[in-house]
């Protein structure tokens, strides 16, 4: 038998006696009953079920999000790993849980730790979607004075903030991108461990099919001892460095503290991805200019790496290449090469048309609907805006560096007024553009995760049409190699969002970009490039196959 | 709370607080010119009021427009989740912590009014989960009669802030302080006799998590700070508590026959 502690609030009694003695002041007649009614309306009648959805009539919640919040509150007692696949709305689930605890009066002091680039987005979502008065951490007094604070871990863990944060008694701590906390020796991990927290949510899209140790340390952050201590965990569940023993038991245990919704289980309609690649030939002048760039390396003016950069830029637009060329020229590192420079700039000036831009224009006319164009280069972005304008198409620019307000404004303009949005960065600063369904990859980033992020802008919850992706590559250039690798070999564009990250993490190959760069720089011939890229893609593919098998074993997820 | 009930609540709130309701064409719209007191409570502009009071200027209080129907064209949409409604709920609580009222009797029916102490409270059952109930208890300050559900009865009576003519009040025999004690004792005995299944379950969850924690730190002696901190956090999470939170309290002078059928308990 557990005897509850009964606590009477007596703080009002002194004042009441005083008013009797002094004959008032007394409340107005009707107000007394209204105050009673207000409290009566706000009562929480049951331990069970969720109150929050009924108070958020304008937020359209999906059944899996409501069920997740209920599971976390009722069955996991407020300590859980939220590991939904990307795009299923983990932020919404977290917001719903915060709201539920706040309405029930179980949480008032809440700390949300997220990557720096996401702070303002979290603040705005909590405020606008949930009416939760969250504030970004800007001044050090915020820690003590504000109830719901959003900050980056990096800020929070540094003095003078650190000691202030550790002084607070948090009712609820939420950590986004929690997979970054897998290493218990890091300062971040130890900092989170020290936080005083009654309830805790860890959000991650790349759950824990990676290393067993990562499962152990992540869960131990939430519920120390739940998977035993480090030794007993190793004895029970590990065999060798990576293999699992007693897998069923581990899975069952983990599922008690983790919710993982999968796209296929949500019963939601997921639009198809329709991918088209365009192998676009340069115009004669562009071709001549592109080839001329090699002269710079052959004459020792630039090195392999810079040539690669220039070639990629030339594939995008002469404007993009010009900026870099001009910089190298002005740095004056090779004064005797004036004739070479002159010849190159002449060839650049001779370029009159941009093959890709014309293709894009043709597509935009054909599509006759909202189109998002992603380019890697600011100069290309400006050029395209100008070029489209010449042909009667207005567009808005979008860059990662814009302030939040400007981003929202551009998004609104795009949604309501113009056909084309030209973006240079999809970034972590997620803007959601699911009202558009056509995306042109004008040039291709070499880091596959960036492609994922681009596609993720439109292929997400709320997208109602099939998603069309158009990839541009110039025939016979570095670009066509990349397209071949990403598209033909590792089938990146068909990939389910979120899987790739997990795969790259497994083979510790997050920096694919660097790998690809190295291949280009160190290879002597086209043939060598091809062979090496083939090798890289087969490594990724074999790991993908392995992951596919394991995904359904370890860490299967709550259902 | 349905939209119509919200509309009624707002109407009553602004009327009771002395604000001016302005005419509107649409029955789902409410337009109200705030008075100074409510403007200060709702509009969150302390600097403005500080300035007006310092300079002795003429204040211009705000006019608010609410709508309780999505389709109405004008005003701020109010539903049960809107922060504005909860701000108004909070304002009602702030404005009415203590009261004294007299039952209004028809003229010439000269009679004695008996003193009652009433306490309204919210009772919360809290562990890692939480639920509440409301309670309203009245204590007759002469003979110690206790009545549960007191506010519901008050709501049906005509009450006035001033003693009606031809009426007089009887002096209490029970002092306010001991009256409050009596109500507490009564409540405590009720709460202690309630089933504790919810608390037992929370206790089991608590014990289980505590065992896990102990096993995690079993090898470490002395235990690190994180152990004690986590232990405290688990206690915070699961410790079953019943909180009796004050809503408001009042003195009521009522005609002695008012409660003839309803009295539930004599002391």
From TrEMBL, chain B:
It comes from the Bacteria. It holds the Pfam family YqhG. This is YqhG. It comes from Sporolactobacillus putidus.
């Amino acid at each position: 038998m557990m005897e509850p502690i009964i606590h009477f609030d007596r703080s009002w009694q002194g004042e009441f006696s005083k008013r009797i003695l002094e004959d008032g002041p007394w409340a107005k007649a009707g107000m007394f009953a209204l105050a009673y009614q207000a409290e009566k309306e706000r009562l929480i009648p049951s331990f069970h079920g969720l109150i929050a959805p009924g108070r958020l009539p304008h937020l359209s919640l999906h059944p899996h999000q409501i069920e997740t919040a209920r599971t976390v509150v009722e069955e996991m007692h407020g300590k859980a790993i939220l590991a939904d696949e990307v795009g299923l709305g983990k932020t919404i689930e977290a917001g719903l849980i915060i709201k539920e605890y706040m309405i029930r009066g179980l949480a008032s002091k809440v700390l949300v730790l997220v990557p720096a680039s996401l702070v303002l987005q979290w603040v705005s979502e909590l405020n606008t979607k949930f009416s939760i008065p969250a504030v970004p951490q800007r001044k050090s007094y915020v820690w003590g004075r504000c109830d719901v604070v959003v900050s980056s871990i990096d800020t929070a863990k540094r003095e003078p903030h650190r000691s202030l944060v550790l002084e607070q008694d948090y009712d609820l701590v939420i950590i986004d991108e929690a997979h970054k906390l897998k290493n218990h020796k890091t300062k971040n991990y130890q900092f989170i461990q020290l936080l005083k927290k009654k309830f805790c949510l860890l959000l991650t899209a790349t759950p824990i099919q990676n290393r067993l140790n990562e499962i152990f340390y992540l869960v131990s952050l939430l519920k120390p001892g739940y998977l035993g201590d480090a030794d007993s965990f190793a004895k029970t569940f590990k065999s060798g460095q990576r293999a699992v023993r007693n897998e069923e038991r581990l899975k069952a245990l983990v599922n008690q503290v983790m919710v993982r919704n999968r796209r296929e289980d949500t019963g939601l309609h997921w639009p198809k991805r329709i991918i088209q690649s365009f192998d676009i030939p340069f115009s004669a002048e562009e071709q001549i200019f592109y080839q001329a760039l090699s002269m710079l390396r052959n004459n020792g003016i630039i090195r392999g790496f810079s040539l690669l950069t220039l070639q990629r830029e030339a594939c995008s637009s002469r404007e993009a290449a010009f900026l870099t060329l001009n910089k190298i020229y002005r740095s004056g590192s090779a004064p005797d090469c004036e004739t070479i420079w002159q010849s190159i700039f002449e060839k650049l000036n001779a370029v009159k048309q941009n093959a890709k831009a014309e293709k894009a224009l043709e597509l935009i006319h054909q599509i006759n609907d909202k189109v998002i164009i992603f380019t890697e280069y600011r100069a290309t972005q400006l050029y395209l805006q100008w070029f489209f304008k010449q042909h009667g198409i207005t567009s808005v620019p979008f860059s990662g560096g814009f302030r939040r307000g400007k981003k929202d404004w551009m998004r609104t303009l795009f949604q309501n007024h113009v056909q084309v949005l030209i973006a240079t960065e999809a970034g972590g600063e997620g803007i959601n553009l699911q009202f558009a369904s056509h995306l042109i990859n004008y040039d291709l980033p070499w880091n596959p995760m960036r492609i994922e992020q681009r596609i993720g802008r439109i292929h997400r919850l709320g997208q109602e049409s099939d998603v069309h992706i158009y990839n541009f590559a110039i025939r016979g250039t570095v670009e066509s190699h990349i397209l071949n690798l990403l598209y033909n070999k590792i089938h990146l564009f068909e990939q389910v969002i979120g899987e790739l990250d997990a795969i790259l993490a497994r083979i510790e190959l997050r920096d694919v970009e660097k790998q690809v760069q190295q291949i280009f720089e160190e290879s002597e011939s086209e043939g060598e490039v091809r062979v090496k890229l083939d090798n890289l893609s087969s490594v990724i593919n074999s790991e993908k196959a392995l992951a596919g098998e394991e995904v359904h074993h370890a860490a299967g997820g709550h259902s | 709370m349905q939209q119509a009930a919200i509309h009624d609540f707002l109407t009553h709130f602004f009327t009771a607080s002395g604000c001016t309701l302005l005419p509107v064409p649409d029955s789902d719209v409410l337009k109200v010119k705030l008075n100074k007191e409510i403007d200060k409570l709702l509009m969150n502009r302390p600097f403005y009021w500080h300035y007006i009071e310092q300079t002795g200027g003429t204040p211009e209080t705000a006019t608010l427009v609410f709508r309780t129907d999505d389709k109405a064209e004008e005003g701020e949409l109010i539903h049960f989740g809107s922060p504005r409604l909860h701000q108004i709920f909070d304002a009602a609580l702030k404005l009415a912590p203590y009261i004294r009222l007299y039952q209004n009797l028809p003229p010439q029916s000269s009679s004695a009014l008996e003193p009652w102490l009433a306490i309204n409270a919210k009772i919360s059952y809290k562990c890692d989960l939480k639920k509440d109930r409301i309670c309203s208890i009245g204590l007759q300050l002469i003979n110690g009669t206790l009545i549960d559900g007191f506010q519901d009865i008050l709501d049906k009576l005509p009450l006035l802030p001033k003693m009606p003519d031809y009426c007089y009040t009887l002096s209490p025999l029970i002092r306010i302080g001991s009256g409050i004690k009596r109500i507490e004792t009564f409540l405590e005995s009720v709460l202690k006799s309630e089933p504790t299944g919810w608390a037992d379950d929370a206790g089991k969850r608590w014990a289980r998590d505590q065992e896990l924690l102990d096993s995690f730190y079993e090898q470490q002696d002395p235990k690190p700070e994180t152990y004690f901190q986590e232990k405290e956090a688990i206690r915070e999470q699961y410790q079953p508590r019943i909180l009796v939170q004050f809503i408001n309290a009042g003195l009521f002078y009522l005609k002695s026959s008012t409660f003839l059928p309803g009295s539930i308990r004599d002391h």
